[in-house]
Amino acid sequence: MNKINLLQSIINELNENACKEKAQHHMQFFKTGSGEYGEGDKFIGVNVPCQRKIAQKYYKEINLNELEKLLRNGIHEYRSTALFMLCYKFDKATENEKNSIVDLYLDNLDFVNNWDLVDASSPTILGGYLFDKKRSLLYDLANSDNLWKQRIAIISTLYFIRRNDFYDTLAISELLLHHQHDLIHKAVGWMIREVGKRDKDVAITFLLKHSTEMPRTMLRYAIEKFDEDLRQQFLQGYK
To answer: Judging by beta carbons within 10 Å of its beta carbon (0-12, 13-18, 19+), is residue 215 exposed, middle or buried?
Structure first.
C-alpha cells in the first residue's frame, strides 16, 4: 500500500466508524461553542477504543510526514488518532527516532489543542523524552500564555511521577497555582493526587503549604483519594 493510500485508508476507517449523535455529544462535551475553550473544533463521533484500534493497525507503516498531515487536520478524531500513533511509535523508537518524534510534536503543539489530546500524548512523548534530560522546556511551556501548553507542562510530569520523581510536578504546580482556568485547576490537582498515591507525605507537605491559596477544584482533585477525616481537615481549613 502506498503512502497516499495508507493515509486515506486511516481516514476512511475513521469515517466508517463515525456517528452523528456521538459527534454532537462530543462537540458539547469538549466545549466547541463560541468563546469556549474548544471553539470551532470539529468531530465526526468516533470513540477512543476505535481510534486506538485503528492507530495500532497502522502506526508501524505510516511515516512521520504522513502522520503530521493527519495531526494537522481539522477533525478532532483524526488528530487524536495521529497522536495515538505517535505515542505507539515513540514507545518502539530508537533514540534518534525519538528525537524526530519529539521535534514533530513540538512543531505541532497548536494542533494538540484540547485536554484529551494533551492527556493522551504528553506523558508518553514529552515526559518519556525528558525523563533523563534537562526539563527547562516544561517550565517554558508552563510560563507561556497558552492554556494547552500549560496543561502539557504539568501533565507531562505524570511520566516522572510514575517513576517516583516528584520535583518538577510540584515546582510546576506552584507556577500554575493561581491560574484562572478550571482545566489547569483539574490538571494540577490530578497530578498532586498521583503524587499522593506514591508518597502521601510528599503530597500532604505540599498541600499544607498551599491548600488555603489554591482554587477549590484543584484542592478537591488533589485530596480525592485521602480518607474522609483528612479530606475534611483540608476542606475545613480552606479559606
So the answer is: buried
Maximum CA extent, the chain: 62
| Each residue's pLDDT tens digit, 12-33 | 999 999 999 999 999 999 999 9
pTM over 0.90: yes
Helix axes 182-198, 200-210, angle to 10 degrees: 140
Closest by CA to 151, choosing from 121, 129, 131, is 121
Determine the Cα–Cα distance for residues 26 and 43; give it in Å rounded to an integer. 7
Domain with CATH 1.25.10.90 in the chain: 1-114+121-130, 134-239
Instruction: Report how far residue 159's alpha carbon sits from residue 128's, in angstroms, rounded to the nearest whole number.
Output: 6
Q: Is 1-114+121-130 in CATH node 3.40.50.720? A: no
Taking alpha carbons only, the member of 65, 67, 108 closest to residue 84 is 67
| The pLDDT of residue 238 | 64
* 134-239 CATH fold: Leucine-rich Repeat Variant (1.25.10)
Phi and psi, residue 180, nearest 5°: -90, -15
- Pull the grid cell for residue 117: 489530546
